[in-house]
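Table S4 entry, Ribosomal protein S6--L-glutamate ligase.
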Amino acid sequence: MTNKIVVFGGNVKGSKFIELKDAADKLGIDLELVSYKQMSYETENGKILIDGKEMKDYDVYFFRSTKKYWEEVSLILDNIDKNKIVVDPIVRSGRPGDVCKAYQMLVLSQAGLPVPKSIYGSLGFLKKEAVKRFEFPIIIKGSRGDRRKQVFKVYGKTDFKKWVDELKVLEKNGENKYMLQEYIVNKEDFRVMVLGDKVLGVMRRGIGDNPRLKNVFEKTDLPDKVKQLAVEAAKKCGIWIAGVDVVFRNDDMTKPLFFEVNRTPNYTRFVEVTGIDVASEVVKFLANLEK
């Protein structure tokens, strides 16, 4: 018997949600999509309601997105049996999955996994103290948000001061916190797609300042040891469905550095270059999870 699955999100009519539903239908697996906007709560009956009716009982609760809906997520978690399967463990622990980059560097380093040198703190601390422990260029990285919007390469002291002054507004408003990270000189990084104990595949991404080479993607592979470390990194971060990002110091495959574990990553490009049906693999993974 396979698990009965519910997938929560904000806009469950989005393509990634529909792909999961279509894959489940083809596989004959019971999967429902539920938007947080369909949820309500009444004190008179003490029940979580979906479209005005008591929430059904499921085996697996997959919170695909949580960013703007942490109160709804918390209410659902508080009202389901503790033995139910929650994806991912980081959600069950009560930690919003989108506010975790500094946390990831901490737990990965504590576990002995190789990560770039990183220092987290207030922008004031980073400006006065932490920056002294790095050589330029360096990276300013937001603890929430993706690399396109919250990762900044800084070339020198003047540039650093400019960025700190600009980011202070976001910090003051509670929109983000920041850390400094060493800049790793490299021409490529790798996305390892992980499902539980399994590596689905690996994608290479060209990076750097050359526009002809930047954001060029292709299917590739990595040494088994590196892939196993990627699985361990995802586990340490409490993420079962993960896109683990790794670079190599001096392009040496024996010197991996894990700089991010992405929860429920966007896999469109990964599917294009690898040919792997990620949606079907995710559904099968969820359907066969054991309590």
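The chain has a mean pLDDT of 93.
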